[in-house]
Amino acid sequence: MFVPLLLVAITPLTALPVDVKESRDGYSLEESQRYASATSYRQLLGGGDITSWWSENIARTMRTAVLPNRLPANTFERNEGEWAGKLDAVSAKTDLGTMTLGEAISDPRSATKAVIILRRGEVVYEAYPGLKSADSHLWASVAKPTAALLIEQLIDERKLADTDSVAEHLPDFAGTALGAVRIIELLDMVPGTDTHDSAQTRQEPDSTATRYYLAEFGEAYKHGKVETVREILKSAGRTGEPGQVFEYSSGITQMLVFIAEAVTGQSWPDAFDDRVWSHVRAEGPLQVHLAPDGMALAHGIVSSRLRDLARYGLLYTPYWSLVADRQVVSDAARARIARPRHSHEVFIKGDGKRFTGYLGETPLGNSRQWDAVYADGGMFKGGMFGQGLYVLPEEGIVIAYYSTVPSSPLIRFLRPLSKALTIQDGDDAR
């Protein structure tokens, strides 16, 4: 269903913003056919109606591994009466101006499709202005911690160490730039290779990032050849010493997928199903979308219902038993995430400055596929088109949202909401 790549320019069918309220009840036959036939890597980068449609219908355009919801779904307790009004009134300075949460969600420019907030396992806020609660939606890069989670489990089981080199587990990478990189340098995205994924590299026709995204969508790079992500990453070049600069990269996340498969002897979807999703009391399946060669696109092309994304977030808290039949994120793994291995200088020297600008508050740094971790334990992971997952483990706070704009204003509310939710009866925030 993919059309030829247009390297000259991004040409979305319609301009932003998307009226998500108008599409909430679905799409016409003509719209679905038109968007499906126009879906391509470059078109999706442009945002607009194509991206909005595709985010809800990826399985119509890509191979997909469906991980069933195997356990009865938990029933969340609700406490919106106490909290919803208070949270709606929380304000933040956003790219759309200073506004309250309620104003941000209702503003059509935010293209907010859905948002949910949990506190100690209770739903304290939930809204679906542009999506139905049973609809699945793209996680985008919010999915990156799923790739890290399997690695964390293997570390707990002593089947690998984060100080191991890539080549120790992937012999076919021996002698390559990435072969000498340690697993911790993959987790923290400091490999010192030309795999950087940024607005600039995504526009460069010969960049490693452009090549691996084309491969994922089955589109030719040059001379009609469709590459594989694995062979592209084997050809990555060295740009500096590992561990020196945080350079965001979906390709680096995929290296974790290859390592997890090598160590478990399972395909990534099977391993994630066995180790994680089959233990979650989810409402619906997790959709793991695949490249043409069957590679699981765990760096971001994953879909689920919003509540199930929130359930995934709750796995990283002491309240995990409310949504799972066993602890899949160990206390040791949470502790590793909470303490960035690489310095704040390494973070801010690279993409950390950009992430700090988005968030409006400077974190300690990035850590193990999470974009930002804070001194109070808060953890954030964002997605390219305005998706987000924020977790404050000890308070059981989870904020998850879907939208279809490159920079959702909701990102600026995460820390103010987190602080508001930790205040009890006029007491100071903990």
From TrEMBL:
A Pfam family matched by this chain, by name? Beta-lactamase
**Superkingdom classification of source:** Bacteria
Beta-lactamase-related domain residues: 114-408
| Protein's UniProt name | Beta-lactamase-related domain-containing protein
The family database entries (InterPro entries) matched by this protein are listed as: Beta-lactam-related, Beta-lactam/transpept-like, Diverse_Enzym_Activities
